[in-house]
Amino acid sequence: MSVDPIFLVGGSFSPAGAESSFRRGLERIGVRTVTFPGNDPLSQVHRLLQNRIGYHFTIRSYRARRAGSRRFNHELEEAVLRSEAPTLLVLKGEFVMPETLGRLRQRGIKVIVFYPDNPFPPHSSQRPETLPAARETDLYLIWSERLVVKLRNAGVRNPAFLPFAWDPEVFPFDEEDPQGAWPGALFLGGWDAEREAFLEELASHVPLRIFGPKEWGVRTKSNSRVRRAWQGRDLRMADAAHMLRESAVCLNLLRKQHIIDGAPDGLIMRHFEVPGAGGFLMSTRGTGASNVFPEGETGEYFSDVLECAEKTKYYIANQFQRKQLTARAHSEVAARHQYSDRARQLVGLITDCR
Question: In CATH, what number is assigned to the domain containing residue 219?
């Protein structure tokens, strides 16, 4: 089966978005891509479903989401058929309804979904259409091998493991930029209550800097350690990559959606972005990541805040060992875990898909 071109539908395809990284990866290996017309395809979804008040009233209503996205789904189906692309790759697929995917499959289109979050309730990323749409795919790609098993048990015909990767256009590597010039721990990411509690305790043991959205400045207590650690802004692309290199230790705190059957699992963006950019990553311990980045060889892990604090102190003090692990992890990511590598895997999975 030819997989050229592939029709992509995702978000706005902003330069730093995962959908743009997948598109660049496909194009680097010679696969032509077609994207949904316009900069914001979801603008065709009824505004009631997307404003703050309407969202809370309709987020669990399949009927409301189906009715409000009827125009979007009609335009998507027509655009895919006009493109004559033999394959549709849906990146997440919010508001992409299962009947739309079913009709495209009946027309001979291979329907592939890459889902970047946890598709099972009660996780907030799960939508009423998520699992029904998963059952209408030819191939459903997910970042956790444990989720592959859960999806198969839930009636998804062909789930498969495909992790994220490193995009050097989003997190560029600069070998002239020294690693670890600032002797402390960096957290780069969004706020939630569990992360706040973890980092509040960690900040009593080691120097900490937090870069992220305004929730860090409004949801946290004014006299807290995390409020003082927050640098008042988020970081993107080259600025984020520089800060990842500058910090001695970069933290990856897995969220509730990454706890599968009671244990952390999977490979998410930060597992690749930090070593790709040249930073030293210390992550929540989980089987998926340690299979690719073995502990103490190309990766370092913790199970609780005290272990994180002790290891952070150790690697701040042991610069030579830290830089060795950082260099090995970067070499691993650069050689095998760029989006062009994922694109080759994707094409192989599509070709084998029956």
Answer: 3.40.50.2000
